[in-house]
TrEMBL record:
<dbReference type="Pfam" id="PF00102">
    <property type="entry name" value="Y_phosphatase"/>
</dbReference>
<dbReference type="InterPro" id="IPR000387">
    <property type="entry name" value="Tyr_Pase_dom"/>
</dbReference>
<feature type="domain" description="Tyrosine-protein phosphatase">
    <location>
        <begin position="636"/>
        <end position="888"/>
    </location>
</feature>
<feature type="domain" description="Tyrosine specific protein phosphatases">
    <location>
        <begin position="806"/>
        <end position="879"/>
    </location>
</feature>
<dbReference type="InterPro" id="IPR029021">
    <property type="entry name" value="Prot-tyrosine_phosphatase-like"/>
</dbReference>
<dbReference type="InterPro" id="IPR050348">
    <property type="entry name" value="Protein-Tyr_Phosphatase"/>
</dbReference>
<keyword id="KW-1133">Transmembrane helix</keyword>
<dbReference type="InterPro" id="IPR016130">
    <property type="entry name" value="Tyr_Pase_AS"/>
</dbReference>
<feature type="signal peptide">
    <location>
        <begin position="1"/>
        <end position="23"/>
    </location>
</feature>
<feature type="transmembrane region" description="Helical">
    <location>
        <begin position="210"/>
        <end position="232"/>
    </location>
</feature>
<dbReference type="InterPro" id="IPR000242">
    <property type="entry name" value="PTP_cat"/>
</dbReference>
<keyword id="KW-0472">Membrane</keyword>
<keyword id="KW-0904">Protein phosphatase</keyword>
<dbReference type="GO" id="GO:0004725">
    <property type="term" value="F:protein tyrosine phosphatase activity"/>
</dbReference>
<dbReference type="InterPro" id="IPR003595">
    <property type="entry name" value="Tyr_Pase_cat"/>
</dbReference>
<dbReference type="InterPro" id="IPR000742">
    <property type="entry name" value="EGF"/>
</dbReference>
<keyword id="KW-0378">Hydrolase</keyword>
Length: 900
């Protein structure tokens, strides 16, 4: 400032400077005060403040006050502290910027911000506890306390209905008193109040009358029985011999049918809980990842994780009986036509064929129904047949010789497989004892540990690079590889009394839809991985399990067995093999949809063989590309022709929704399949929720990519919604954007912004090395800004030279592979197909090289075409994939050698 004795000239000069600053602002943004020499407070939004007094024009997220120096308090966070914190533990203040809780959530909520209520059926901290099945409305309870809604079911009490009735009480909330003294001083049934045997109290005045009446009734009944037997024998002796034989045969058939379908064992099983012995020793129950003490009464009534393995409709024809028909073998060349025939009239052929298969208990399973073994069964109606069950033979096994598992015969060898239920907490020792006893080296797991709110299987292996033991068996997890649809774990298994460890490979398919069936080609790729890592010398059974060990398990075993049979004989018979499986274990292949999946998977399997190549073999194959003569590319041309023959052919029914909403839009020459189409979740006035975009998998991750086309100017807002709604923070363009005129409607120039109402796209930074990278921020009102990286090549990816220059494409793939994001990466081209398929195929193939040290371009492209048949649909693009991978391998090898 001018001093008091300053000249008038000095004062006028300052006033002129001040008026200039007020009119135009400080020359350098982010400063204020005399000569614009003071920096604005650091928490001012966009670093800007009042040029005179330095007060902020707005605060960054999490701060408030004139100079934005105060963090949000009072359970508020975010821009202008407008957002309310979730329920953090003990009411703690959440993070003032992003709303996350510093420790953990309070009971009843979950999520990073602790703002999501527990799903129905779960409660407690992090929603890890399951509401009791004994609630008045099963699995419905208070999300915080677990208190049951509507009280308890008969036989249970307490707020969470986890404690059985006290001795001498029964009924709802245990409010009823047992009316009689039960034999051996036992309490009455906690549900019905009855006793197996009742000793009436001695002071009962009707005691003698009841006894006399009982004796008289017994004597009369005995006399009637004797008379009937005498009359029956006399009548039989008067019949002709052949008539007697027919009569005896009918009686025998009735007895056999009763044994097979209703069964004497079923008669006993109906009341088996009432006859179950109790003891005073409490039972430790650690199912569902929680530990509690079950009383003997709880052991009686709560012996399984769930009542049924609900995979779908067992018999699509209900209780209607269909006469068995002879089903002929199908040549592998006719599988597709057989499928088409059976799919007519809403899969009626599959439904009828499946309904003719034998269902239910066909053989005795007495051991699985014994009282001491009921607690080891996961489901109440799935037992192993006695004649084919796996018997544990290790001496001094505390839990006995029982496990819910059966040997399953292949088409050439007996006991080729073991079909097992998923282990429970109380069967972990038995499960690993079986693996060691049967010398199992491959485990195929077809369920997740939890699907929805249902626990499907307990985790029986240790975490990566960790160890655990079950009984005498020690298990170490030496390696874990994550693929798009499955996980492979290498386990070292040893016995405490033996020194030599064994290697057991676990193949865990993680994307089988709950109550559905998997993509047939994905299941075939998984099966091929299991097959190629099994040595021909290995004769031990393959252990296959899901949850119950019948539905998904039967589907996989049938695929494996029938593929081997079809390869050897040239024909298959799915129905006959399912019958074979069902003689070993009940109800293998649980629904007609699973039965149909066997056909679909076998069709994919036999269409084209999957053959991975080592890198040296691939390089040898690629030497044929060295010349420019077409004859040099005969092998790849034949591959491409085969690919075009077998790629999926979809009908208008598969595009019903997309064609209805997208057909009339410019740029939509390639439509998304309804099955894989993405939807927009945000709401913008006069805009729908459909966009031409699909999810595509990488080799390692399902839903790794979003593939779409460049938006037209009128659809730019939907493109931005897509990025926001699906949290995609990377756009990979298949063309330099200066050649895409429409990109100017949403991509701002340097140091500027674009208004795409209701969004503002703000330019942040730009770099230009091997690829051009632009960073922008998408701002939508007061919501959290979304940062996005836009990657574009510095030249055209399709080269016209000979040999073609793949450097631009390799640079794009290399940059994308080195990204640290876990969010989906959006791939964009002019039509959402050309070059997108090439990019994904190269990306996925390089991941395969790094993970497995082998490559299979044909199968990689084939999988991509299930999502979008237009991917790599020209010889030029298919050859470009090969050429790019060849160049990648050569340059990588050169780099490795130069660093040695």
């Amino acid at each position: 400032m001018c001093r008091e004795d300053a000249s008038l000239f000095c004062l006028l000069g300052f006033l002129q400077f001040l008026s200039t600053v007020l009119a135009y602002g400080c020359p350098t943004p982010g400063y204020y005060g005399e000569n614009c020499s003071l920096p604005c407070p650091q928490n001012c939004q966009e670093g800007r403040c009042n040029i005179v007094n330095g007060t902020c024009l707005g605060c960054v997220s999490g701060y408030t006050g004139p100079t934005c120096d105060s963090e949000c308090t009072d359970n508020r966070y975010g821009f202008e502290c407008n957002s309310t914190c979730g329920k953090c533990l003990n009411g703690e203040q959440c993070n003032h910027v992003n709303g996350s809780c510093p420790n953990r959530c309070d009971a009843g909520v979950f999520g990073d911000k602790c703002d999501k209520e527990c799903p129905v059926g779960l409660f407690g901290y992090n929603c890890r506890e399951n509401c009791s099945l004994n609630c008045g409305v099963p699995q419905r309870c208070d999300r915080v306390t677990g208190e049951c809604r509507g009280g308890c079911q008969p036989g249970w009490r307490d707020l969470q209905c986890k404690i059985s009735c006290k001795w001498g009480s029964y009924g709802y909330n245990c409010n009823e008193t047992c009316q009689a003294v039960c034999a051996k001083n036992r309490t009455c049934d906690v549900i019905a109040g009855t006793c197996e045997q009742i000793d009436t109290p001695p002071n009962d005045p009707d005691d003698n009358t009841a006894v006399i009446a009982g004796v008289v009734a017994a004597v009369v009944l005995a006399i009637l029985v004797v008379v009937f037997i005498i009359v029956f024998k006399r009548t039989r002796t008067t019949k002709p011999k052949h008539e007697m034989q027919r009569s005896e045969k009918r009686i025998q058939e009735r007895e056999e049918n009763a044994h097979l379908h209703n069964g004497s064992e079923n008669t006993g099983f109906t009341n088996i809980y009432e006859n179950m012995k109790t003891d005073d020793k409490p039972v430790l129950n650690s199912d569902n990842n929680k530990t509690s003490i079950d009383t003997p009464i709880e052991k009686k009534y709560d012996v399984r994780d769930d009542d049924t393995d609900d995979e779908g409709i067992d018999n699509p024809y209900g209780d209607m009986y269909l006469n068995e028909e002879t089903i002929c073998d199908i040549p592998i060349s006719d599988i597709e036509s057989a499928i088409n025939e059976r799919r007519e009239d809403e899969d009626d052929g599959f439904k009828r064929e499946y309904a003719m298969l034998p269902y239910g208990e066909q053989h005795p399973c007495e051991v699985g129904k014994r009282q001491e073994n009921l607690v080891k069964n996961r489901f109440k109606t799935t037992f192993p047949y006695d004649h084919s069950r796996v018997i544990l033979t290790e001496p001094d096994t505390p839990s006995g010789d029982y496990i819910n598992a059966n040997y399953i015969s292949g088409l050439e060898e007996e006991r080729e497989y073991i079909a097992s239920q998923g282990p429970k907490q109380n069967t972990l020792n038995d499960f690993w004892t079986m693996i060691w006893q049967e010398n199992v080296t491959q485990i195929v797991m077809l369920t997740n540990l939890k699907e929805g709110v249902k626990v499907k299987c307990i985790q029986y292996w240790p975490g990566n690079m960790k160890a655990r033991h079950h009984g005498n068996i020690v298990i170490k997890n030496e390696e874990e590889k994550q693929y798009a649809f499955y996980v492979i774990r290498k386990l070292s298994v040893s016995h405490k009394q033996q020194n030599k460890p064994r290697t057991v490979m676990q193949y865990h398919y993680t994307t089988w839809p709950d109550h559905g069936t998997p993509d047939p080609l994905s299941l075939v790729v998984f099966h091929s991985h299991v097959m190629r890592t099994r040595t021909s010398r290995n004769k031990s059974p393959i252990l296959v399990h899901c949850s119950a060990g019948i539905g998904r398990t039967g589907t996989y075993i049938a695929l494996d067995a029938l593929y081997k049979a079809g390869k050897a004989s040239g024909k298959i018979n799915v129905a006959e093999y399912v019958k074979i499986m069902r003689t070993n274990r009940m109800n293998m292949v649980q629904t007609y949809e699973q039965y149909m999946t066997i056909f679909l998977a076998l069709n994919e399997k036999f269409k084209a063989f999957m053959e991975t190549q080592s890198l040296p073999d691939f390089s040898t194959k690629m030497e044929t590309l060295a010349g420019d003569h077409p004859a040099n590319q005969t092998g790849i041309r034949k591959e491409f022709q085969k690919l075009m023959e077998i790629r999926p052919v979809y009908t208008s029914a598969h595009f019903k929704n997309s064609s209805q909403h997208l057909d009339n839009k410019r740029g939509n020459n390639v439509l998304p399949l309804d099955k894989y189409m993405l939807y927009l979740t945000s709401s913008v006035g006069k805009r729908g929720n459909v966009i031409n975009a699909i999810h595509v998998s990488s080799y390692q991750k399902d839903r790794a990519f979003i593939v779409t086309h460049y938006p037209t100017p009128e659809d730019a807002v939907d493109f931005l919604r897509l990025l926001n709604d699906h949290e995609s923070d990377t756009i990979v363009c298949m063309n330099p954007l200066h050649a895409i005129e429409s990109s100017k409607t949403w991509l701002p120039e340097i140091a500027s912004s674009r208004d795409v109402s209701p969004f503002v796209v703000q330019h942040e930074s730009e770099s230009d090395t091997e690829v051009k990278v632009t960073t922008v921020t998408i701002i939508h009102g007061e919501r959290t800004p979304h940062s996005v990286v836009v990657v574009e090549p510095k030249g055209q990816l399709k080269s016209t030279g000979t040999p073609p220059d793949t450097s631009f494409l390799r640079s794009m793939v290399s940059y994308t592979r080195n990204l640290s994001t876990e969010n989906p990466i959006t791939i964009v081209s002019k039509d959402g197909a050309s070059l997108c398929g090439v990019f994904c195929a190269v990306f996925n193939s390089i991941q395969q090289i790094e993970m497995d040290d082998n490559i299979d371009v044909f199968t990689t492209v084939r999988q991509l075409q299930t999502r979008r048949p237009e991917f790599c649909s020209t010889q030029e693009e298919y050859s470009l994939v090969y050429t790019t991978l060849r160049d990648y391998i050569e340059t990588t090898s050169e780099t490795v050698y130069s660093n040695q």
